[in-house]
Every structure is written in structure tokens, then in C-alpha cells.
Amino acid sequence: MREHLERELKLSAPSGFRLPELGGTPLPDRTFVSTYHDTHGLQLARHGVTLRHRLEGGSGLWQLKLPSGEARIELEEAGPPARPPERFLALLVALLRGEELVRVARLRTRRRSVRADGAEIVDDAVAVLDGQRVTRRFRELEIELLEGDERSLRRLEAMLTDAGARPGEFEPKLYRVLGLAYPPGHVDVPTAAAPGEAIGAAMLEQYEQLLAHDPGTRLGTDPEDLHQMRVAARRARAFLRAARPLLDADWANELRAELGWLGAALGAARDLDVLVEHLRVEAGSLGEEGKGAQRLVDELERERTDARAVALAALSEDRYFALLDRLQESRAPALAARTSSSLAELWWAELRRTRRAFEKLGPDSSDSELHAARIRVKRARYAGELAAHELGRAGERFVNAAKRLQDVLGAHQDGLVAEERIAALADRLEPAIANLLLERERARRERARRAWPNAWKKLEQRGRRAKP
Question: In the chain, how many domains are there?
């Protein structure tokens, strides 16, 4: 299975447009037919995923594209059109959940391309097919980075637009044909939405986030996918906690317990992702001395491999798929018999509890007290996110300030964890290297201790301005 990180930009070509002289090497013209597969409800496309079989010159190739930040990961495997590769289906198991794959579009593309400036510039004439009949035609230009950088991309874009091409939003061909927005967007909750509607929308968004990052987590190319899955599980759990006075207790508690299980299953691997990356950067900053820290990084990477196996095992359990089904249904949450509070009022009550916790803190507060305060900030932040449609712009400012304070206190906690792990494995390092790494972690914690009071002051100010 070939894997490739796809970084590209698309433009539209008006009638009569001709590729300008780009100073590169023309590539042979190509013609291929791409058959796209999805569920009847377009479950893959609605999560930024495309699966297609491409036939070119008598050879068949399956291609799976997964979102990865601003780019996409493209996986390829040769094979006949009858059935996608098992490795592709294994990555899509949570999105499909037993649903049948069907053909949703068939396109014939005639491609002219040039290799220039570390990129491939493509001019595609596309015909949408229904059997042998052409139902629609369009043309698009594409610049895909190969060895170049973002400056190359922008330079080539300028040359094409100077020649008459029109800049446009990135939109894969399938989305253009099906009339779908790309990437799948966030749905805003109306200001006048009832609490139950807002809770349902928030829970559904976290369900969508879990599904969007599930294939990437299984693939394991980008640690950010596992991170975002864990965040979605934690955020959904926090939403249920923030809204508990409005929800049926049994329904909410059972769902919170399952989300807690998933978050814990993903947690060890994510924590080790953070720790390994941090220590790798620290070791690299030490120059030649840092090479002695590689044994520590190697040991933690072995632990991470084991933790990732635990996370993937959880994603293969029936319990996980049952949780996804329940989250999908949570768009219509089970409400308590009587609900009178608004979400903004619940947020304000959470902020008051946070304020009382911070009133007890001082310069000599213990590590555990600062960690508990961070948890309080996180709860207030998620309560603010849940009530965002009621709090408006002032609520957004509060959430941003909460993120800042959470990051500061998180750096303190991360430093503590790193210090403990370095100390536990210090016998594998030269004493001088171990002491230097420990000193850096203590300095990181000290910086956080100096920074959190101002960050809290800013958060408290933003909270007062957002008071309902």
C-alpha cells in the first residue's frame, strides 16, 4: 500500500484558457476513468473521505483519501474493481458500520500536466458519466506540491492566475459533482435554540469528530488524529456533565461512563505522543550531548507502541461501535422531566465554582492543587462552549481565555509528568544528561507558575463580561 501526503491547490479555468509557459517538463497526456464508492447516505464524503477505483491503460488502482489538517493522505493499492482492498475497508470500519458501498459517481478525466518548481501542474478536462453518456463537463487546474514548498505553490498560483485562471476554494471533484461542501463544516446553533437542541447539536458534532479522525487514528501516520479523537470523547463527556441538571440522569451517566472508557483507552497513547515529541525536541536542542538522551526516547517509543495497540484494540470492540451508535442518537438527548435553567446560567454556576477554587491558590500551591485548578478551568471552558449560542461574542472571548489558562496549567502538568518519567528512567542516561533534562522540566514548571496568575486574571475579567 503506497501512502502519500497530498498538498494541493485548485483553480478554475475559464473557456479558452491555455497553460502558460512554466519553464518545466511536460508530462505525457493521460486519460483515466474514476469510479467513486460511498454509502447511500454518502457517509464517507460527509467526513472528508473519498474512495475510488481508477482505470487507466487497462490497469486498475484503488485510491483512498483521508483528511489530514489542511492536506490529505492518499493511499493507493492496485486491484480489480470488484471490491476495495481489505486494508482500506479496515480503516473505514467505523464510518461504514456494516453499510453497503455503492457507486456514487463515475468520471472520465483527460489530463495534461507539467512538472515545474517542485510541483505538478495539472489541467483536467472532466466528463461526468452515466453509463456511456456524458451528463456534464467541467475543467479544473490543480497544483500539487511534490518536493517544493508553500512559496513554490504561491508562485505557480500567481503565474496561472496571471494567465487567466480564477482562484477558488479547494474542492475535490467528487464534491463538485455531488454538490457537497468541502470540508464538512461546523453547524452554528441559532441564538434562540432551546437547551435540548443545543446539547443535541454539540453531542452530534463530537460524534462527527470521532468519525472524522477514526481512519487516521487506525492508520497511525499523524498523531493529531488520535489526539482529536480523545478531545472529542472528553468534550462530549464534559458537555454531558455541564448540562446534567437538564438531562435524564441515567441516560447521561451511562453515556458519560462509556465516553470515559474511550478517553482512557486513548489516553496513554496520546500522553506518550506528547512526551516523546517533547523529549525528542529537548534532546535535539542539546546538540551532541542530546544524543545521550536517545535511549530515553527509544524506551518511551516502545511504551507508545504498546499503548497504541491498546487504543486500537478498543476501537475494534463492539463496545466502541455501540458507543458510536448512542452518540449518533444523542442528537435527540434524553431530557429531565423538568428543565428551567439556561445553558448560560449553568456556565455561570460552573465559573463561580472555578473562581472559588482559584481563590485558594497562591505562589506555594501544590502540584496537585494546580492540576485540580486546570480541571476546573476545563469544565468552565466546555460549559462556555456549550452555551456559546447564548453567550455570544463575549462567550467566545471567555473560551479563548480559558484555552490560554488551560495551556499554561497544562504545561505545568506536562513538565511534572516529564520530570517523573525522566527520573524513573535516569539510570539509562548519563548523570549529566539526566540532570540537565530534569532542570529543563523544572524550569518549564516554574515558567507556568509565574504565568498562571495573569492568565487567570484575564479569564476572570472575560467571565464577568460574559455574565448572563
Answer: 2
- Quick one: cell of 429? 542516561
Same-domain pairing of 304 and 386: yes
Does residue 324 sit in the same domain as residue 277?
A: yes
How far from 64 is each of 78, 98, 196, CA to CA, in Å? Answer: 12, 18, 37
Band of pLDDT at residue 403, cut at 50, 70 and 90 = very high
Name which of 189, 19, 44, 24 is nearest 118 in CA terms: 24
Whether 218 and 169 map to the same domain: the answer is: no
Give the Cα separation of 280 and 276 in Å (integer).
6
Read off the CATH number of the domain in which 144 is found. Answer: 2.40.320.10
Q: Residue 111 forms beta bridges with which residues?
A: 30, 124
224 with 366, same domain?
A: yes
Provide the 10 A C-beta neighbour count for residue 166.
Answer: 12
Are residues 252 and 334 in contact, defined by beta-carbon separation less than 8 angstroms? yes
Report whether 111 contacts 27 (CB < 8 A). Answer: no
Q: Compute φ and ψ for 106, nearest 5 degrees.
A: -140, 125
pLDDT greater than 80 at residue 339: no
Domain assignment present for 190: no
Q: Are residues 29 and 150 in the same domain?
A: yes
How are strands ordered across the β-sheet holding 2-6?
2-6, 71-78, 59-68, 50-56, 25-38, 102-116, 119-130, 133-145, 8-12, 166-167
CA distance linking residue 368 with residue 434, whole number of Å: 24
- Same domain flag for 75 and 102: yes
Pick from 167, 181, 174, 117: nearest CA to 10: 167
Answer whether residue 7 shows pLDDT above 90: no
- Report the interhelical angle of 249-285 vs 431-465 (nearest 10°): 130
Helix axes 367-386, 431-465, angle to 10 degrees: 40
- Shared domain for 201 and 93, answered yes or no, is no
Q: Residue 5 above 70 pLDDT?
A: no
Q: Where on the phi/psi map is residue 62: left (φ > 0), alpha (ψ -120 to 50), or beta?
A: beta
pLDDT single digits (tens) 166-210: 877 678 899 999 998 887 777 788 888 999 999 999 999 999 999
The residue among 178, 212, 247 that closes a domain is: 178
What is the rounded average pLDDT of the residues 275-298? 87
**Residue 429 is assigned to a structural domain of this protein:** yes
Same domain, 284 and 205: yes
189 domain-assigned: no
333: nearest Cα among 238, 132, 195, 217: 195
Q: In this structure, are residues 237 and 375 in contact, taking their beta carbons and an 8 Å threshold?
A: no
Establish if 104 belongs to a structural domain.
yes
For residue 4, what pLDDT is reported? 65
Structural domain for 37, as ranges: 2-178
